[in-house]
Amino acid sequence: MFDWKWDFTIQILPRLLEATLNTLMAAGFGYLIALVVGLFFALAQRTPFRLLTVMVREFVEMIRSTPLILQIFFVFYVGPQFGVRLSPWTAGMTAIGLHYAAYLSEVYRAGLDSVPKGQWEACIALNLSVPRTYFKIIIPQAIPNIIPGLGNYLVGIFKDSPMLSVIGVTELFHVATAIGAETYRFLEPYTLVGAIFLAISLPAAMSIRRFEDWVRASLGMKKLYTKD
Amino acid sequence: MQEYAEFLMAYGPRFADGAVVTLQQAGLGTLLAVVVALTTGFMKISPILPVRWLGIAYIEVFRGTSLLVQLYWIFFVLPLFGLTLGKFTAGFLALGLNLGAYGAELVRGGVQSVPRGQYEAAIALGMGPFKRMRRIIFPQALLNMLPPWGNLLIELLKSTALVALISVSDLMFESKQINMTTFQSAQAFGTALIIYYVMARCIITPGMRWLERRLALKLSRG
Amino acid sequence: MMENKKFPLELTGPEIPMVRFDRVSKRYGDLTVLDALDLDVRANEMVAIIGPSGSGKTTVLRMLMALELVDEGVIYVDGTPMTHMPKIGGLVRASKSYLRKMRENIGMVFQHFNLFPHMTVLENCIEGPVQVLGMRKDEAEQRALDLLDMVGLADKIDQYPARLSGGQQQRVAIARALAMRPKIMLFDEVTSALDPEVIGEVTQVIRKLNDKHDLTMLMVTHQMGFAREIADRVCFFCEGKIAEQGPPEHLFDNPQNERTIAFLSAVLDAG
Q1: Rounded CA separation A154/A207 (Å)
Q2: Residues 6+ apart with CB under 8 A from B60
Q3: In A36, B73, B111, C253, which residue has its Cα 20 to 30 A from A146's Cα atom?
Q4: Are there at least 3 beta-carbon pairs closer than 8 Å between C and A?
Q5: By C-alpha distance, which of C259, C182, C252, C264 is closest to C215?
Q6: B123 CB contacts (<8 Å, ≥6 apart)?
Q7: What are the structural domains of chain A?
Q8: Which residue of A has its CA nearest to B45?
Q9: C/B Cβ contact: 3+ pairs below 8 Å
Q10: Using one digit for the tens of pLDDT, what is the confidence trace for B80-126?
Q11: B-chain residues near A180 (CB < 8 A)
């Protein structure tokens, strides 16, 4: 029966908020890993070494086309099979980091592709070295196109963090389920989890949209999002 | 390699059974998602403000919380309100409601990408708003929407794996069970990964391309 | 309610104009696009509207088709107000369904054709009659075939617009508009988006319409030669008002207004 207990709610709130911090940390670290590894994936696909580009491409496709939760299980359980014990956190971070690295590599790729061909040719004509070409010329021009896409996945990784609970990472969802199991009350914990997610993801999504519009405006592009 | 072949022979049927359940979840989830997407997508562009706000609220709530949380809420919390659903139903219901919210944006984008001139030509012929949408605008919007819908369907397929967490015996669930009994994690989860990959790349992607081609022929842009 | 004492509920008298703009104004924010415009068009008259861009000429057509609403003033079609509805005591703004009814008298051809890409040429031309007028499909097809024959595209009835040239598409657009049997036809810069070599096919059709049919026509155009040849009257628009109007010989050969003179010489210089 619908029977919301406010005192119970207040009782569990501190625990849930603490777990939210864990969630934010997990999402944050995972995102940092994804940012770095994703760049590696993107750049690796632009080398002249055919074997490398093909392997990385297939690996990225594999990760993007299969469920994150399966990948989390894979990373967590495969280690012990070959003698390597990974803690839930390590396994979780690796899996979610790799997963989002694959998505971010596509964002990087699209951003790099959006830089006009003429820029590359100018760099060759000026005899600039490859690192210089990338870091001083190409990447700065790609960044405005990359930032918006990156923003979306930041919110996404936060929303996917509950999946880490299945291998025991004590993030928000895991704690809510534990509370439910201890007290046999699921209504308040799960509803609060939903509310906390909304409270974080909605403002985040809105700020990202504003940020995107700001980036586009300062480049002279039209607004992508209207008042809608 | 030899061991893996034995593994496959022993557990292949279970993987196959799981894959069938996954496809069922994906299929039903897709149907529901399409209905939800069309409904809320049109609500969002409705000129009637309360309808629009309702649509926006639905979309923001379902996109702003994760599917897993929604799934658990439907399965564990709804019974407290008197609505008890079986796990299979809860599964594709959550999938459809969640991914439908993302689909709504695609519907909205597709409709808004039809050139203004088409509206004006239909108005000039004297068509009212419903006729206009049904006969002129929506057919064109449909073609614009298909590529992003292809990506959404792959997301939906991947998301079906979550229903394993409420014990629906899909591919993910079977691979977990097999892992628990054999401890051959690489084989168990690896096989599942390959099957998901095959489903996404060899069924969905070509399927959507076929649909796009058929529709383009009908609308004759090709 | 409008200041109904100033705007009649309907036009009366021996010779009612087919179209009347009665002190019509339109503004976009600070910009006045039409400034208390008075314009009468007689039945079966062919009026060409010329002028620089931003002068309001396209807005005139769009408001007649109610694609835009008037800010002030009333537009009458065949004596009846179109932008407003007669109610007891005065005029009120027309409802959407009233506008739709009034539009039945008017057909429009657009600069960018706006053919329905997902329908064949024939289907484009029967869509209005079947869906809006409620005609039977075979009757509508017969009417469409006659019209397509008149515009010279009888052999393309099963083609999709993407396969046709610009000139062909525009001719289909004309047939599509005519299929609704309007009293008034509006042509909004219908040759501006065409390659030079196909402009002739379209002007040929308009010429035929003018000669053979009882149609009131308003044409916004940059084709000065064509306007001069075919129009009964030419209106030169400038900054939201008619700066000068008259029969083509007067306006083109003997313009009085300095703005008209400036515009015409600029156009002629550009070749």
Answers
A1: 12
A2: A198, A202
A3: B111
A4: no
A5: C182
A6: B132, C65, C66, C67, C103
A7: 6-218 (1.10.3720.10)
A8: A228
A9: yes
A10: 888 889 999 999 999 999 999 999 999 999 999 999 999 999 999 99
A11: 76
Residue A228 binned pLDDT confidence (cut-offs 50, 70, 90): very low
Q: B159 to chain A: which residues are within 8 Å by CB?
A: 67
Report ipTM (2 d.p.). 0.86
**A182 exposed, middle or buried (CB, 10 Å; 0-12, 13-18, 19+)?**
exposed
The CA distance from A166 to A188, in Å, is 21
Inform me whether the C-beta atom of residue B205 falls under 8 Å from chain C C-beta atoms.
no
At B186, which CATH number? 1.10.3720.10
Q: Please say whether the beta carbons of A208 and A155 come within 8 A.
A: yes
Are B121 and C128 inside 8 Å of each other by CB? no
Query: Residues B65-96, buried b or exposed e (16+ Cβ, 10 A)?
Result: bbbbbbbbbbbbbeeeeeeeeeebebbbbbbb
Residues across chain A: 228
d(C-alpha C185, C-alpha C194), whole Å: 20
Tell whether C107 is within 8 A of chain B (Cβ): yes
User: Best residue in B65, B70, B76, B107 to probe A by mutation, most A CBs within 10 Å?
Assistant: B65
Kindly identify which residue of chain B lies nearest to residue A187, measuring between CA atoms: B77
User: Backbone dihedral region of C13: left (phi > 0), alpha (psi from -120 to 50 degrees) or beta?
Assistant: left
Q: Which two tokens stand for residue C26?
A: 């339109």
Contact B135 C114 (CB under 8 A): no
Number of structural domains chain B divides into: 1
| Mutate which: C103, C114, C132, C183, vs B, most B CBs within 10 A | C114
Mean pLDDT, residues B25-52 taken together: 94
| Coil, strand or helix at B83 | coil
Q: Are C39 and C235 in contact (CB under 8 A)?
A: yes
Q: How far apart are CA C149 and CA C143, in angstroms?
A: 10
**Contact criterion met (CB < 8 Å) for B179 and A61:** no
C chain contacts of residue B127, beta-carbon cutoff 8 Å: 128, 131-132
Q: Does A78 touch chain B (CB under 8 A)?
A: yes
Give chain A's mean pLDDT: 85
Closest by Cα among A103, A100, A80 to A91: A80
CB contacts, 8 Å: A149 with chain B? none
Residue B53: domain span: 2-218
In angstroms, the CA A101 to CA A38 distance is 4
Set of chain A residues whose Cβ sits within 8 Å of the Cβ of B154: 65
CA distance C240 to C235: 12
Does residue B121 belong to the interface with chain C, where contact is any CB pair within 8 Å? yes
